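Q: Give me the 3D complex with 2-phosphoglycolic acid.
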Amino acid sequence: MARRDRQVEIEEVRMRRFLIAANWKMYGSLAMAHEFAESFDQSVDLGADVVLFPPAVYLSAVQGWTSEFVQVGIQDIGAALQGAHTGEIAASMVKDLGGSWVIVGHSERRTDQGESNELVARKFASAVAAGLRPIVCVGESLEQRNAGDAFAVVSNQLKAVIDLCGVTGLQQGAIAYEPLWAIGTGLTATPDQAGQMHAAIRNLLVGFDQDVAQLVRIIYGGSVNPENAGLLFAQEDIDGALVGGASLKASSFAAVVAAI
Ligand code: PGA
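A: Here is the predicted complex, encoded as structure tokens.
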């Protein structure tokens, strides 16, 4: 099937457009980013919102190398709108450089920097206030899953955002379900495990607002690669992916995008 026909077909059957994001974490270099931008085919609408999250210092360069079909953002922002916060980057500054998205609450920041649910919610609110689209990451550890607490952990993380921004605020961005035990480990959640959590998250949102629940994109992250992406994307409530390791090479990231 021609790419264009396939795109139309995808859009007809799905209410939510796929969102596929590349989280480069603290990897790469300016040369790597350039090489990626040169070899990743950005000449057509890929049928998904495709977003690159380079390290913040490369935002401007990467923004200059992307076409209208690829968006850019950074992996974290400061919670304050501006002020005496050495080392922090304000949401408005990301916007200034042409960024349109930001990741907040990635588990590596929650763990390494001790970010609380409340701080993550404040970052989400600042992003929305600046006109950025935040992706809030939620997910449980293996111990929490084994103790039967996975959904409680995830719902508390989300409720902190809803408490501060309202469920319509949540709609300005997206949710990434990233079980900690699947990140960078090669241990992807099975499509069923991920699909169940995504459905449970959507169900939680239904309790706040039926329309928002249907519109918010819930993407999956944790060892997504070209081999497992198709099965994950086939799950009704999985609206895309936040891709770490497999997003560092244009060819494997393109293969994940093609799996939609
Ligand atoms: P991974 O990372 O794909 O390397 O597991 C995903 C993420 O942390 O966003």
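A quick observation: The radius of gyration is 17 Å.
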